[in-house]
Amino acid sequence: MTNDFVSKIALTTIFLALLFPVVLSLFATEVPQDWILYTNGPKLEELMLVKSDLVVIDYSADGTDKKAFKKEDIAFLQSQGKKVFSYLNFAVAEDWRFYWNSLNKAIILAPLGGWPGEYYVKYWYSEWYDVVKQYMKRITSAGFNGVALDWINIYQHTKLQKLSGKNAEG
């Protein structure tokens, strides 16, 4: 792995940890055995019926800003004893998200096999950092307890290594 590539990964991690305190909540929270991930149109009433104290949901009922959860929605779940984390696909672009129409498609590498509408992305590019920052602002303003980051180990994924010409060893 080149020093430049490693530096970009390290800077991304430091940037997120320093700029967005909500990310730190993920590391400070003990995750119980019983938790639920619900990303496909969760309804608050359904989440209240879940016995788990930790729920991971999308920042939005359908991935768009139009159906984004409001601070009051998250506060209601929290008032019922739930810790509410937002799901964030850290290194894969999804075509139903708020950012898709304005995303620079030059940072898209290829479709992610088995996941329609999801794409490998050049997550080390500043354009993707901007997307993550926008995402984190939405999560922070809605009052989530923390963030569950998906695909943070994507640099190990063999197909991405072939597409990008980079690998985990160097």
TrEMBL record:
In this protein, which residues make up the domain named Glycoside-hydrolase family GH114 TIM-barrel?
Answer: 59-159
Keywords for this entry?
A: Hydrolase
Q: Name one GO molecular function term.
A: hydrolase activity
- Superkingdom to which the source organism belongs: Bacteria
Pfam families for this protein? Glyco_hydro_114
Q: Which SUPFAM superfamilies match?
A: (Trans)glycosidases (SSF51445)
Q: Where is the secretion signal located?
A: none
PANTHER family recorded for this chain?
A: PELA (PTHR35882)
Q: What is this protein called?
A: Glycoside hydrolase
Q: Which organism is it from?
A: Fervidobacterium pennivorans
